[in-house]
Amino acid sequence: DVPDITIQGDENLLHQVWSNIFTNSIKFSSDGGTIEFFVEELESSVIISISDNGIGMEKEEMDRIFDRFYKVDTA
């Protein structure tokens, strides 16, 4: 059950963010893997959590995921 929520922002940028998140979850999960999407309303905020059974990220990589144009080396 997902609550009705409204997210304000640039429609194109929000679409790009969600597309990137789901594409990466699918791309880096194993065949037949599970991707879970959780939405929780907390006061005047919304908490969105996504988990998958992919390869994961090192802490150093996670510290930089919001740096513009940063990509994790998958080699």
Automatic annotation (TrEMBL):
InterPro entries: HATPase_C_sf, HATPase_dom, His_kinase_dom, Sensor_HK_Regulatory. CDD domains: HATPase (cd00075). Residues 1-75 form the Histidine kinase domain. One of its GO terms (biological process) is phosphorelay signal transduction system. Gene3D superfamilies: Histidine kinase-like ATPase, C-terminal domain (3.30.565.10). Its EC number is 2.7.13.3. It catalyses: ATP + protein L-histidine = ADP + protein N-phospho-L-histidine. Keywords: ATP-binding, Kinase, Nucleotide-binding, Transferase, Two-component regulatory system. One of its GO terms (molecular function) is protein histidine kinase activity. SMART domains: HATPase_c. PANTHER family: SENSOR HISTIDINE KINASE RCSC, TWO-COMPONENT HISTIDINE KINASE. This is histidine kinase. It comes from Bacillus cereus.
